[in-house]
């Protein structure tokens, strides 16, 4: 294990952020999760709240804050289309002002910053699969642009702070990631389908379901994020995701199969600007970080289904313990 570090995780009570906090605590670090709980929840970190190396700071990243840390993982942002379209102006500001505040803090205390960018910077891609060199096809005035352009502007700020002001940066373009602790009302395809299947409701497939996505299990993503942060020189942007590509209809059928549900597929209108295809080229992550997703879709879906069964009260599983990676934490509960 590397030396113990003081680490800030913005968005630390969210889906990815809470799994990242688990990993960092397990690695022996001191972790502050900064979150306004707008799309995340205290329940995601409930099992960490009494840990002596963990602190939850309820705060909005667009407002100034001050903590002395060695690492900043900047994950705060609504991430699902329904969440980020609810208040699009705020989404842009959270991404732009949020990363600006993180970068200024890093400049002041000499911390290294990881920026959670997204495959959305590629928009509805004309190049398939997408390498990091592809510059994307984003509609700058569409209903997704608050998020897509917010993240693109954030990438620009990250690189300018690096080039002009010497801040150490790391940046990953994250492709669709799923797992336990996605919010029930998140609206993303994996959580929607699982919740619908477990409730015996129709699975809402948008369009004909022929659009594709590549789904990465959260533990694989977290491994890639930590490897990138601790790489001595690699700044990124680096694609992180699982290149196995599925149509949305295939995903629906797999979820019905794995849940044993009697639910059926119901077709709904395709949202505006919905990307037709998405698959990462991860050669760079493989070469630079030794990153290789290990969890096949079926295995990851099983774990996620178990997590949602717990949340929905269909088993005795506690939501905070839903991931197989959630082994008991070292030095727990000593205030
Ligand atoms: P999430 O909504 O579960 O987590 C985001 C967290 O940020 C939440 O806890 C939320 O409360 C917090 N937050 C939002 N606005 C905030 C603010 N103004 N101040 C403080 N906290 C705030 O979503 P997630 O899937 O865990 O996404 C985490 C990050 O990863 C996001 O930056 C997202 O853009 C990025 N990402 C995720 C995926 C994915 O598939 N999960 C893909 C690409 C990029
Ligand atoms: N989708 C769907 N049904 C749902 C939710 C999403 O068919 O209930 C589709 C959506 O139109 C998109 C894909 O699934 O084509 C992935 O959507 P998600 O919101 O998970 O992520 P993103 O579009 O940002 O990749």
From TrEMBL:
<keyword id="KW-0456">Lyase</keyword>
<dbReference type="GO" id="GO:0005737">
    <property type="term" value="C:cytoplasm"/>
</dbReference>
<dbReference type="GO" id="GO:0070403">
    <property type="term" value="F:NAD+ binding"/>
</dbReference>
<dbReference type="GO" id="GO:0033320">
    <property type="term" value="P:UDP-D-xylose biosynthetic process"/>
</dbReference>
<dbReference type="InterPro" id="IPR044516">
    <property type="entry name" value="UXS-like"/>
</dbReference>
<protein>
    <submittedName>
        <fullName>NAD-dependent dehydratase</fullName>
    </submittedName>
</protein>
<keyword id="KW-0520">NAD</keyword>
<dbReference type="InterPro" id="IPR001509">
    <property type="entry name" value="Epimerase_deHydtase"/>
</dbReference>
<dbReference type="Pfam" id="PF01370">
    <property type="entry name" value="Epimerase"/>
</dbReference>
<keyword id="KW-0735">Signal-anchor</keyword>
<keyword id="KW-0333">Golgi apparatus</keyword>
<keyword id="KW-0472">Membrane</keyword>
<keyword id="KW-1133">Transmembrane helix</keyword>
<keyword id="KW-0325">Glycoprotein</keyword>
<feature type="domain" description="NAD-dependent epimerase/dehydratase">
    <location>
        <begin position="7"/>
        <end position="241"/>
    </location>
</feature>
<dbReference type="InterPro" id="IPR036291">
    <property type="entry name" value="NAD(P)-bd_dom_sf"/>
</dbReference>
<keyword id="KW-0210">Decarboxylase</keyword>
<dbReference type="GO" id="GO:0042732">
    <property type="term" value="P:D-xylose metabolic process"/>
</dbReference>
<dbReference type="GO" id="GO:0048040">
    <property type="term" value="F:UDP-glucuronate decarboxylase activity"/>
</dbReference>
<keyword id="KW-0812">Transmembrane</keyword>
